[in-house]
């Protein structure tokens, strides 16, 4: 049974930390806390993940198994499917998915189920932090009432007069900022935004995270912290939509927008480069704008700018499919019945992450129009059933000059560094390039269709 503690307790050592959700966000966070000497328990509903972690095995490509094994052997990391063990934790961090449903509305079922799992095990003066990206108000309106079913209370207060308000437990929101595969900025280097339901909760969460990140940025409330994450990713979504639209215009005007963007990026102020592509992917940028648009309707507010950006980005896979059809038509071939090889199913290059990948939409659309599809991705030997797609029968095909030449069209959807683009172009009949991946190829450029 945890002892009574004040916010400053969480600045101490040997804290028992539970992390719910051991995926791309939760596992790096667990390892970072273990690095600093804390004892971490990963909670997950997937028994295979739990088994792998307890055996010191990794299931995420950029996280080495040796690091996991080191902490398991040292007694700083273990995993379980038994959520009753939450009662033995000092702090519990929630890192579960927040996807969209079929109507592109927020699906908070994972957050809700997690809160329901915590509530009967909640202990006095425990710290609970939600990290999952969501709309402003989720922590206070959804998570808090469920946790208070335990009989413990955490008042929502603001301002200096409530700095020492009495609270039975601490509740905060701190948005994850994980960027899988980013070698320049890891978790330790990225500042952590923290907002609490009351000042003691904010101080408790700030004290805990200060031990594992370079800087903590306290904000006035959980709602402000929730909005911070949405702003970060809506900013990117809107700017990507802008360059996607300009790319479509540039094609009609015979202007290379990659050249334009790279040239504009030489300006040392007032410009930040964003690049077009076949659509948005990843766990945040394709999802976050819809979370805010949905919530905004509660306040009779239409987020027209955000919704327009979403429409443009959502339309990009359809544009790519039309470009494939047009390129095949130039070769006197129809899209229906053509053999097409899609290169790259990960949502961005050099990661083993399929979440919201536009490649999955491309596979769906091309198959629906009668094309015969194969794919290659060095990070995905096989595909599995996902929330909205089932390509579990597909396996990555080998890339050889002979195999490339057997396809009517090769579609570059993800520009992995491992690909030999000179070989791809020289061996293929047609190459549709959605990522400007072939920019350094100098021979047989007449085969390349920029899309």
Walk me through the structure:
There is one protein chain. 35% of the residues lie in helices and 12% in strands. It has helices spanning 26-35, 47-54, 65-73, 109-118, 138-147, 199-209, 222-253, 257-264, 288-296, 304-330, 358-368, 401-405, 421-427, and strands at 16-20, 39-43, 77-80, 91-94, 127-130, 170-173, 192-196, 216-218, 339-343, 372-376, 409-412, 431-433, 448-450. It is of the alpha/beta class. Helix 4 links the parallel strand 4 and strand 5 (127-130). It has two domains: 7-220, NAD(P)-binding Rossmann-like Domain (Rossmann fold, 3-Layer(aba) Sandwich), CATH 3.40.50; 237-450, NAD(P)-binding Rossmann-like Domain (Rossmann fold, 3-Layer(aba) Sandwich), CATH 3.40.50. The strands form two sheets. Strands 3-2-1-4-5-6-7-8 form an eight-stranded mixed sheet, with helices on both faces. The termini are far apart. The longest helix is centred in the middle third of the chain and has 32 residues, at 222-253.
């Amino acid at each position: 049974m945890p002892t009574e503690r004040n916010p400053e307790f969480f600045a101490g050592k040997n804290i028992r930390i539970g992390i719910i959700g051991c995926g791309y966000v939760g596992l790096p966070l667990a390892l970072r806390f273990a690095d600093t000497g804390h004892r971490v328990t990963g909670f997950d509903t997937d028994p295979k993940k739990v088994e792998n972690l307890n055996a010191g095995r990794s299931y995420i490509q950029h996280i080495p198994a040796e690091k996991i094994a080191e902490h398991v052997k040292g007694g700083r990391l273990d995993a379980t499917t038994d959520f009753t063990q939450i009662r033995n934790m000092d702090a519990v961090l929630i890192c579960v998915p927040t996807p969209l449903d079929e109507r592109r509305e927020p699906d908070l079922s994972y957050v809700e189920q997690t809160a329901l799992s915590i509530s009967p095990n909640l202990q006095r003066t425990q710290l609970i932090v939600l990290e999952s990206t969501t709309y402003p108000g989720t922590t206070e309106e959804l998570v808090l009432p469920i946790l208070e079913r335990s009989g413990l209370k955490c008042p929502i207060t603001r301002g200096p007069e409530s700095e020492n308000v009495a609270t039975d437990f601490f509740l905060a929101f701190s948005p994850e900022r994980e960027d899988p595969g980013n070698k320049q900025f890891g978790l330790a280097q990225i500042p952590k935004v923290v907002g609490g339901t009351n000042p003691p909760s904010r101080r408790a969460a700030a004290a805990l995270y200060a031990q594992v990140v370079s800087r903590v940025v306290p904000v006035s409330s959980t709602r402000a912290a929730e909005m911070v994450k949405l702003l970060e990713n809506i900013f990117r979504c809107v700017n990507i939509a802008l360059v996607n639209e300009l790319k479509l215009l540039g094609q009609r005007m015979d202007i290379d927008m990659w050249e334009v963007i790279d040239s504009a990026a030489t300006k040392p102020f007032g410009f930040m480069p964003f690049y077009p592509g076949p659509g948005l992917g990843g766990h945040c940028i394709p999802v976050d704008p819809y979370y805010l648009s949905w919530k905004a309707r509660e306040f009779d507010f239409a987020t027209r700018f955000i919704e327009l950006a979403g429409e443009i980005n959502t339309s990009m896979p359809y544009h790519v499919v039309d470009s494939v059809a047009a390129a095949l038509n130039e070769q006197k071939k129809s899209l229906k019945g053509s053999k097409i090889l899609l290169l790259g199913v990960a949502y961005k290059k050099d990661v083993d992450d399929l979440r919201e990948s536009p490649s999955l939409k491309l596979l769906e659309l091309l198959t629906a129009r009668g094309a015969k599809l194969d794919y290659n991705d060095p990070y995905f030997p096989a595909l599995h059933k996902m929330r909205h797609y089932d390509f579990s029968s597909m396996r990555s095909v080998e890339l050889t000059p002979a195999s490339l030449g057997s396809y009517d069209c090769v579609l570059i959807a993800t520009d992995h560094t491992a690909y030999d683009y000179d070989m791809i172009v020289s061996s293929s009949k047609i190459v549709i390039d959605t990522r400007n991946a072939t920019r350094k190829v100098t021979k047989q450029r007449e085969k390349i269709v920029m899309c």
